[in-house]
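Thanks for the sequence, V.! I ran EF-hand domain-containing protein right away. Repeating your input here for the record:
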Amino acid sequence: MASLLLFLLTCILCRGIYTAEFRGPDAADIPKSDPKGQTARSDKNKEKTKLRSVIPLVDKNGDGKISVQELAAWTAKSMKAFYKQEADNRLSGLDTNKDGKVSWEEYAKGAENRGAFTEKQRKRERRRFEHANVNKDSLLSSDELISMFHPEESPNMFGVIVEEFMEFVDSDKRCFLSFDEYKGKTADRGNTDQRTAKESFKRLDQDNDGRLNKEEMKLWLAAVNTSSQAKNQAQRQVSMADDNKDGVLSEMEIVNHVDVFTGGREGQTVRDEL
Ligand SMILES: [Ca+2]
Ligand SMILES: [Ca+2]
Ligand SMILES: [Ca+2]
Ligand SMILES: [Ca+2]
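Predicted structure:
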């Protein structure tokens, strides 16, 4: 369940961050509307102004249009900056001896302080810690710490996460994931219907033997990492806002579809595609 939770959290987090990054940090402070609807209108105008100010930063080749690639790169960059900031904050909380790194003892102490750190969890976290510690100095740097909380970002973590996941879902302990087991984990909250689950399962089942082996499960992880999600999201956003169907977005197309970039439903389908 922890890994599934991780997938869900990642998706939810991404939804929030993508839109927050594009909208700018203080939009949440603006009241939604007043009885005359004037505040709502001025909200929209503020969001449009912010969007306009971001466009030149996204438009890497400076041709005045935003391509899927430019949008995806911007989104991924924003997400990664957020992960880095998050890891720096966590590090300063965990690093009790102030050497700028997190030892296993410091990490475990932090988990204990948050409450209910069972022996099983300790074992699992320890295994993650070992894999995240790329340079094997027994300490996690801020960059290595990202792998603990966002293992989908680091291919060196895929093996251990698949192990964890299989411990939870491989009900018949055959080291393969059947469609029923997969469906049970992706469709159990009503967010993915049977048909979508079947399609995504088929995509992952590369050797077509009707079950997922560990290597195929790693593809699943690769599909939820920031770059993949950013690419999917950028494709959807461009197709939703590209009024003249030339495959890129002009400033006017972006501003005319402010909702596509500043909130609402975008990101909703990320998990459905897994
Ligand atoms: Ca461009
Ligand atoms: Ca330390
Ligand atoms: Ca297979
Ligand atoms: Ca266009």
